[in-house]
Amino acid sequence: MLVAAAVCPCPPLLVPEVATGAAPELDAARAACLDAVGLLAAARPDRLYVVGPVPEGVHGVFPAGSAGSFAGFGVDLSVRLGEAPKGTAPSDARPLPAPLAVGAWLLDRADWADAPIEGLGVDEAATPGVCAGLGHGLAASAERVALLVMGDGSACRTVKAPGYLDERAAGFDAEAARALGTADVAAVLAMDTELAYELKVAGRAPWQVLAGAAEDAGLDGRLLFEDAPYGVGYFVAAWS
């Protein structure tokens, strides 16, 4: 059963080594993410899943010990998703996608050592039904389950945003922030998939996995951070 969740943005710039000048404008987001991860630890889960968006063909499970690198962003920095189970070698079969690598970095910064970890890459185009089904499966996998859910809002908030300015983006992000900040499961599952695609919302599918996992959990939500410093919506929320 799901007992806690943290929602965090997943830009590699969240990692100071990747950001030129450490991007101090993201300091508040980093602090909120670490606070949210701390709340996950306080829930004392039996298992933690790190869930993030990936392109088609990359989706699936990334076992504990899976490694990721930020070399593609010009930084000689590697991370690992927890520790491989005793008696097994760390898994290097598939590198962690960037969103899961950012999640692994957050857990490392928080000195996570509270429960076994597994990563789940979710196809960005997965339907709400598929996402909810994945969430149900995660929630049923242990008595006390926690999720670290990585994903960004729209990428169309300003003319300098990756997707340029779209007047619909601010409204979408405002409703996403409200739904995530209040643990409104029905609203998250009802997010418009076509509009989310047009606004380049990377978090829609992972958020709907969370909503599926939380359908019978009765969790409350808190919004810890909301901003769009690069024209991309970033939210940090805690469900418990």
From TrEMBL:
UniProt name for this protein: Class III extradiol dioxygenase subunit B-like domain-containing protein
Taxonomic placement: Bacteria, Bacillati, Actinomycetota, Actinomycetes, Kitasatosporales
